[in-house]
Amino acid sequence: MSSQAFSAPGKALLAGGYLVLDPQYKSYVTALSSRMHAVLHSTVSTNVEIRRVKVSSPQFKEGEWVYNIKGNDYYQSGAINEINERRNPFLEATISTVLTYIQPKDNFDIDITIYSDSAYHSQDGTTVSKSNNGQKKFLYHTKPIMEVPKTGMGSSAGLVTVVTTALLAYFNNIKDIDESTKNIIHNCSQIAHCYAQKKIGSGFDVAAAVFGSIIYKRFQPSLIENILSNKASNEEVQQLVNSSWDFVHDQCALPPHIRLLMGDIEGGSETPKLVSKVLQWKKDKPDESDPLYKALDTANQKLIGVLSDLHNLYKQDPVSYTSHIDSEVTTELSQTILDIRHNLQKLTKLSGAEIEPETQTKLLDNCRNLQGSFGGVVPGAGGYDAICLLVKDDSVNTIVRSTATNPRFQNVTWLNLHEEAQGVRTENVVDYDGLK
Ligand SMILES: Nc1ncnc2c1ncn2[C@@H]1O[C@H](COP(=O)(O)OP(=O)(O)O)[C@@H](O)[C@H]1O
Ligand SMILES: C[C@@](O)(CCOP(=O)(O)OP(=O)(O)O)CC(=O)O
To answer: What are the structural domains of the chain?
Structure first.
């Protein structure tokens, strides 16, 4: 029996919501300490007939999918059969894509156990389980995954990425995840994620799960169109996975002493509805949308520039850097964040999509005035889901404490999260021993 474990991070899109759907704009994505994990065990099957992948997700009721696999056209219906007819489109698409790419000759009997860190889902009514050596701790829900509210960290992108990694590692005997392996993982995961959703999104969540914190410019959607309409042959899928995609994923990280603080907001928004409203408005009113997209992009690029300048400043002189960011609170970084917000407020007004609605504007204005805060934005598609602040590292505890009893912040739950810039990585299998 062989065993391996992997994890991939969740994400927050700090700058570039909506624009990132278009390959001409760069966005800024922060990878988070909340990660999705996959632990793989495999037995060499002596049974000539067995080609099986079992996926367990023990934190959720009915979290078990057992797939028997037939033939070698893995996107055909009937090729990937769940024995209890349970659906998990993201697992089905991941298994189909990796098997199409690998075309395994031998039998296989693979068990994958999924664990997700606590910030991906609402924590209400959960119980904790710790591994024997105390390295891993996960929350267990009483309901099936479909019924547990999400926080918007990108659970499906994390799932697709770690399961893709585990399967590729098994079939290709991978021990270390180097850059070229990451590209294969990325391409397979993007294809699988689009296939599961039956649409081609911007892919920033999958790219962050693979590469970690990144400045991201999307791939051309046309790359995947044929696969979605089941028009691609197995060879075409293999060539696409092996080819070099034209997209940007430059490694980045927040500057020293600057921390990200994510607040979960009571209430929620549906990203697809917001996206279709914005895209419809963009199509109908180019005279309004063209200049606004340009202005928003200018503010986004300014943020990327200011963060990079802060890194350079630290490199040159770490001592004066610290006093600089103290005075910075009222200056460039917070002004740039405000510029982004003003443009998102305009976008809200003109498109009619509630991206930075009034209650979020009030909340973000209050957050801006907190001691040690550079201000914050509605991340990603915005709406009523979350807020994302940049704050000085030594202010985090004070902010969390001072807002806890303040009625202005009563809708906010600060998530126990920080940036963890590293993308998909190997983990120690023993760290998961003893979990429920
Ligand atoms: N821990 C998990 N175990 C099994 N499946 C999961 C897990 N996390 C996410 N998924 C799959 O991803 C789906 C959620 O995907 P999606 O609606 O795109 O949410 P998100 O925005 O968090 O990615 C779930 O319904 C399930 O199919
Ligand atoms: C609007 C978008 O550009 C960004 C959405 O970012 P979120 O982080 O809000 O995403 P979800 O987790 O799917 O809700 C759409 C996209 O890029 O696909």
So the answer is: 2-251+421-432 (3.30.230.10), 258-414 (3.30.70.890)
